[in-house]
Design brief:
Blueprint lengths: L3 H9 L10 E6 L25 H13 L2 E7 L9 H11 L2 E6 L9 H7 L2 E5 L4 H8 L4 H13 L6 E7 L7 H11 L3 E6 L5 H4 L7 H20 L5 E5 L4 H12 L4 H11 L8 E4 L4 E3 L9 E2 L5 H7 L3 H6 L16 H4 L4 H8 L13 H4 L2
Parallel strand pairs: 1-2, 1-8, 2-3, 3-4, 4-5, 5-6, 6-7
Antiparallel strand pairs: 8-9, 9-10
Helix pairs in contact: 1-9, 2-3, 10-11
Length: 374
Amino acid sequence: MFRLSNLLKSVLEQKKARVLDGSIAIWNFTNRCNLSCLHCYSKSSLDEVDTLSTDKIMDTLPKLKANGVKFIIFSGGEPLTRKDIFDIASRCKELGIITYLSTNGLYIKKSNAQKILDTFNYIGISIDGSEEVHDKFRGLKGAFVESMKAVDLLNSYNQTKVGIRFTITKDTIDDLKFIFELSEKHNIPKIYISHLVYSGRGLDNLKMDLSKEQRIEAVEYILDKAFEYYDTNRDIEIVTGNMEMDAILFLNRFSKLYPEYADDMRQRLIDWGGNSAGRKLLNIDAEGNVKPDPFFPSTIGNIFTQDFSDIWTNSPTELLQKLRVHPRELNGKCQDCKYLQICNGGSRSRAYAIYGDMWAEDPSCYLTKEEIKR
């Protein structure tokens, strides 16, 4: 994740940046879901049966903690379909693990809103544009209204724990402006904008992805809003995901506006380190498979047959060891890229999906060879 608002504020105000001291685990606790979203990588439905038992999850949590996992993002499917989800999150709190809930919001009601806020450190609710676009993308009429009810309900408690998640594709790009207007109107404190990664339904719908020209235009608009919010003291945080090259456009813009802070910003971006799959990021899917990120084409172990400590720390696979080299040793235009220390080559999942080569350049990188030449 690229926390551009946080970096902008911390450098200009000469404060410490928010640095991840440890790893993030995105855990798909279930494949059950009440929606059928076009871009979903987990191919979920309500007919799925949970493989992960409560006991297995509870047994694994201390091992994650012992191996440096500081955050767990509760994902799915729809994590709120699990009856034990609050017990799992409460155990995380006992262990000192920060919990994020990624949800479509349809199961959030007045009866459980306070419990959700008390249990989770942050709640991200997916909104994919205007009502018509969102409902079509999510495969359910009325989904937008119900999801926004959940956003407004949680936001009404004034705990600044809720944000919206938006996946940018050819089908949703025209509603990017709408998402920011929606956040401003409803005083939503955080916007997470995810770029598409080709995997699961995302791979099936590769045609949904943006052209490089569209992506640059979209990212420039996102940057416009980030600088606008800072200049006007608007308390809305912007984060982008799955496109570490956004940091380079941000750096170039920042350096022109604030040349006296350019070196500081560049160093903080190098310290951030770009794509962290297999290094500071991992995924456990609903079958217990451990992967460097949720979109990865191969696994590095399974918690049913191996101890997590062996998978992540004691006996990492050759793939995991190569992913942890920073900056990564990559082919294509990454070889001569002066920004490689910042973006770390972007998504290995996209590289594999398009080129069949885990170490090729990220095909979605929108920077030209002239721009990145050393």
